[in-house]
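1st attempt posting a full record on here, be nice pls
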Amino acid sequence: MAGEPQADCLFCKIVAGDVPATIVRETETTVAFRDINPQAPTHILVIPKVHHPDAASLAAAEPQIAADVLREAGEVAAEEKIDGTGFRIVFNTGSGAGQTVFHAHAHVLGGRGLNWPPG
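the predicted structure (as tokens):
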């Protein structure tokens, strides 16, 4: 059920503390941790503690928590000192867009030039 922890979800296991992660920030509603396969010098994932399969589902069901994820992405960028030089927030939705963990999450990327268009 949406919003409830899923036994087979890697990010739910990180939220529960069952799988280790390099956590950089945590709030009542979010967890931010370093990506294990970074695509930029700074690559941090910001996830909601509640389980929703993607950003669109999260925003439809719990818009305040979706806003929390975005706010925390900005806080992460400031703490990592990439807010002044520019950073990207990416939500991949669906396997065709590169989503591999079906728990809503934002990628915060920075620390190098980020070309446009992406990918």
